[in-house]
Amino acid sequence: MSTTFLPCGVYHENYKQDHAWWQTKFIKSKMFLLFITLFFIIPWISDSYSLSICNQIGYTILGALGVQLLIGFCGQVTLGHAAFLAVGAYVSTLLVLEFPWPAVFVELGLAYPLSIFIAAIAAGLWCVLFGLPSARVKGFYLILTTMAAQFITVDFIITQYISQIGGRGQAFSLPPGTIKVGPWVIDSDVKVYYMMIVLTIICVVGVVNLLRSRVGRAWVAIRDNDISAEVMGINIIKYKLLAFFVAGFIGGIAGAVWISNLAAISPEHFPWFWSLWLVGVILIGGVGSIHGTIFGSIFMVVVMEALQMAVIPLADTYPKLLMDFLFIKEAAFGLAICGFLIFEPNGLAYRWWQIKNYFNLWPFSY
Amino acid sequence: MNQKKVLFGFYVLLLSVMLVAGFVSSAAAVDKPAAAVAAKPINIGALNDMTGATSDVGRDYALGIAEAIHYVNDTGGINGKMIKLHQFDYGYRVPEALTKYKLFQRLGCVAVLGWGTGDTEALSPTVTKDKMPYISASYSGHLTDPKKTPYNLFFATDYSTNARAAITAWFDKKWPKHMDYGKRKPRFACSYMFASPYCSAPIKAIKDQATILGFDIGPDQDVSLFAIDTKSQVLALKEFKADLVWHGNTTMSVSATLRDAYSLGLGADHIINNWGFDENLPKMAAKAAEGAMGAAVCAFFGENVPGMDKVVAYAKKYNPGIPADKRLIRTIQAWGDVLILREALIRADKAGKLDGESILKLGFETMNNYEIGLGAPPITFTATDHRVAGAVPIYEIKDGKFKLVEKVDLKSRWPEKWAKEWIGW
Questions:
Q1: Which of A87, A113, A302, B350 is most buried, judged by most C-beta within 10 A?
Q2: For chain B, which domains are there?
């Protein structure tokens, strides 16, 4: 699906060129424009609300990336990914609030960035723990074990024990100024946006590169047929657990970054519905496609918000529309999934691929 | 194949129309704040829970908010300016609340009528930074200290004050009649959803009060807001031989716990936080609710108090499909929050400033024993204390009706602690 049709006159003479990220000047220009858009135009033209939508998209991409890796590339269905986001968020929060960092770390603003890294490792290892059953079970049985991750992690361990640390009750408060990256205090939507965009790009690039490697090929082989993969000499348990680790690692980053957008954190932030939502994102975006993760996230967040903005003017005539919007939103989510599964099972990524190729081959697209 | 194409085309068209409409209206909304100053309506945001974990009490509150805003507009608005209400159901989801808050800012709202403790506390530093008055249905004690949360306000006594008052009323009125009175300490335990910031907000305060009064405190019981079976928790309370149980959930799960306590013969008395104590409780728990005590922060729906006639009339006018006997104290609570916001807006507007800081300083914090009627206490906000009152009426359910047991005045009884220790938690 990621095949790119090269324009006439562009030849690859070695593997380096063949595996290059951006293979033509045109693509490089497009990427440069994308960079300008992401780093300058969007922050410049957006108000606080639009930036909060962008941040939500970033959070959704980071959350769904792990789900995509597990379901789309390794064939391990997960329905409890919000648990690993929660682990990341809580580990990072606890490290920032409770850990006795040396003064120099705090002054240099290193405490939070380090906490993100530690939180990601913790979430990765936690994810491996719930991935262990994948050595023995698959399909529906694996779904149940991943669902258990949600209930054991969020509803039991975090709610009953982790939340009690410090004696505050259930919510950890993150007063303004707590989250600091280097000299910058992350206290506005635009700062969260920059942090989110940088980490999202790093994670996407990391995952794409992993998928281009021996590890990625092993994952795809396991997804396509685990018995054949084993026959070919792939250690399927090792690679499955590695997939769980990477998925949890990225989920941990998502959770740890998301706390910078919140002023308090409680188990309510990580409901089971969010795990379902992330699966919905990759179904709509396209299973087995990194583009799909991004498109699905944008679709799910932007369309829902646009739908809401479309409802607001109608509310003058039908005031109850605003109050009933949540019903509309949930119904739209369900309908979108049904619609995509029936009419476009390959998701938005496939449409994007078709559109791109249409223009690449134009005017001889037949 | 053709049918597939047509359907796909329709889907794309629908999506495009939706997106265009969304962006057009959002662009229009961006222009609003600048233009919406003069005689244009005053935008107010409202976050309500009609579908989430607290919807058992949230629906009635949401109806009350809309009806009260109609009343304000029908009676002259804010010095002639009408209020435009942007009311959303956020399903008790904190991330949804954060996004909606940003939307309220974009829509040019000058104040927000909020709902749950989780989102209100999560938004608190943001509303402080934005200087946005946030009048919530969460009466968490954490929101009463202006040093930490200056822009969080509500018309009622806070959960911690209510919990302290309820346990004190039981200690004053019920414990002396117990056969073990004078022989041992009374035994006390709490039953609530640990994960919910609303339920856990007054835990520290009520245990502090229990210690002051000399209770033995037993293990907390985790009861979900969605619980319909609580037998294991009730059996644990029975093992502890609790004399008194405080319930921190909303009406639906509290009634489930009361029913199980009754059927398993727990033998303890019950005190209940105000969001679990309403007209539905005796209906749902029947005999099991008899003798349960709780704080009511205002009059129950239809009670004979000043201002109730308007509440009843507006409920009938705007929601005629819901009979009066189905309406709850939640409607009155909604009116309470709207009425203090109206007064604050009127005062700030008279001073010629309708920005957040003026609404707080020239509006709310100038209220001194301001009467809103509806059985609510006279409202006083100062720059150093956002607890509206120190006296809490405690009711008991007798024959399915609410009877006043005692008005516990914590402020007079523990003046030192009230002034110096008990603020903000």
A1: A87
A2: 36-157+302-389 (3.40.50.2300), 160-296+393-421 (3.40.50.2300)
